[in-house]
Amino acid sequence: MFRPRISAALLIAVCLALLGAGAVGAAPGKPRPNSQGKGPKARITWSLPRVDRTLSPGESATVEVAITSSADVDNLQLWIPGGLGRMTTMAGAPTSLKAGQPVTFTLTFTMPATGALSQGGVVKVRAGRRNLPANLPVLLTVRGAPVSGAGK
Predict the structure, then answer these.
(1) Is 85 helix (H, G, I), strand (E, B) or coil?
(2) For a disulfide at 97, which of 45, 49, 69, 93, Cβ 3.0-4.6 Å?
């Protein structure tokens, strides 16, 4: 009878020692992944708080913007939905970000020569299937035209 109690106590002591060693062995200062195996949440910042441009029909404008993340982000997607997206091209948009390293890319806005309307919208950010709360507001105003989608 004495032997099973010692074995159970020994087993519990070994388990506790192993669990404690795992916690102590964790690298200090490094963010630990959450329980679902994902890395730390990324906080996205932009070099500009928003993009505002006024264009004449048929005119184009180019804007350089930089995006920075507080954590590494893979499988990054930037896109502009709606009417604004049909008037915008992105050159050099990143597909991943390294923590603390800004990446600069170019947005080119082209207003149609006829039927041009002012457009408001955002540059959206996605990592994999998850949308990140890091939209860059954009407002393109055509001289004398009404605003469509402002405030989205």
Answers:
(1) helix
(2) 69
